[in-house]
Write a structure and sequence with these properties.
Distance between the termini: 54 Å
Largest sheet: none
Oligomer: single chain
Number of strands: 0
Number of helices: 3
Structural class: mainly alpha
Strand content: under 5%
Order of helices and strands: HHH
Shape: flat
Length: 85
Amino acid sequence: MKIAKNIPRNLLLCCGAYYFSSAIVAIGHKILILAHYMLQHNTPFRELGAEYYQRLRAPSLSQSLVRRLQRLGFQVTLTPIQQVA
């Protein structure tokens, strides 16, 4: 905590504002790209759902977790669970 006391409050607020404003610019950029795509292809907005990114990222996440377990000395075999429809 001594380090935080030595940093001027103005500097902390300034850096926080910088990262906040860059986040706003990034979100605005994503919205602009989306609007351009929709206008270019004449398509309406389609909500992909909350599970879209989980399904998209599942293979790389599982491989990452397998590698972590292997580094810890475990032998890992993945078998998919059959889902009931």
